[in-house]
Design goal:
With 189 residues, this protein is an alpha+beta fold. It has four helices and ten strands; from the N terminus they run E-E-H-H-E-E-H-E-E-E-E-E-H-E. The chain folds into two domains: 39 residues, no CATH class; 100 residues, Trna Endonuclease, Chain: A, domain 1, CATH 3.40.1350.
């Protein structure tokens, strides 16, 4: 621990021994630094003090990055497990990406049997942008695949997606669905 002592000399003193005295200690200082000096009588550290101590000048030194917050350790995934913890399953010969999606399918099938909805479809693809050739390579069309599409009694066509986690890619596709095709996606949690 180093302690600082401030030597005080009568105003107007230019030299003390072989050392020069700083002329105006408030020039080039921020309001906070001037206020500290006014209230305490102690001068805030300066580049001159840093040079004397052998440390690099702050204005010339590269800026240090703020230390990153330590992240909580992620729960380890079993080999082959899904990133979002969904479990693929099968029902009636149909494969689903999650149990939640399978349960929603069963609900919609029962609604269709009761006559509440019509024309229930599963995994309906919508083309958002056609295929293109980039750098001599053909890139496929940009598509959004809706989990379910059906028509209600009132004639409104509903596009549904079962979501446990909303990803950035999904947000973009949801935006394009509305902007390009005028289709709102109903998210089922």
């Amino acid at each position: 621990m180093t302690s600082r002592t401030t030597l005080r000399y009568p105003e107007g003193t230019k030299e003390v021994g072989t050392a020069r005295v700083r002329e105006d200690l408030t020039v080039g200082r921020s309001f906070a630094e001037r206020e500290i000096h006014r209230r305490t009588g102690m001068q805030p550290t300066s580049e001159f003090d840093d040079i004397a101590a052998g440390t690099p000048i702050k204005s010339l030194a590269p800026r240090a990055k703020a230390p990153a917050k330590p992240k909580a350790p992620a729960k380890p995934r079993a080999p082959g497990a899904s990133k979002y913890r969904n479990q693929k399953c099968e029902s009636g010969g149909i494969k689903f990406d999650s149990k939640r999606e399978m349960m929603r399918w069963h609900d919609l099938v029962q609604m269709q049997v009761r006559g509440d909805i019509f024309d229930l479809e599963l995994q309906v693809a919508h083309v958002l942008a056609p295929a293109v050739v980039l750098d001599g390579r053909t890139k496929p069309a940009l598509r959004y695949v809706a989990d379910f599409v059906y028509e209600r009694k009132d004639g409104v066509v509903v596009t549904e997606d079962v979501k446990g986690h909303v990803t950035p890619a999904y947000r973009i596709k949801r935006h394009l669905m509305k902007a390009l095709l005028g289709i709102d996606i109903v998210e089922v949690k």
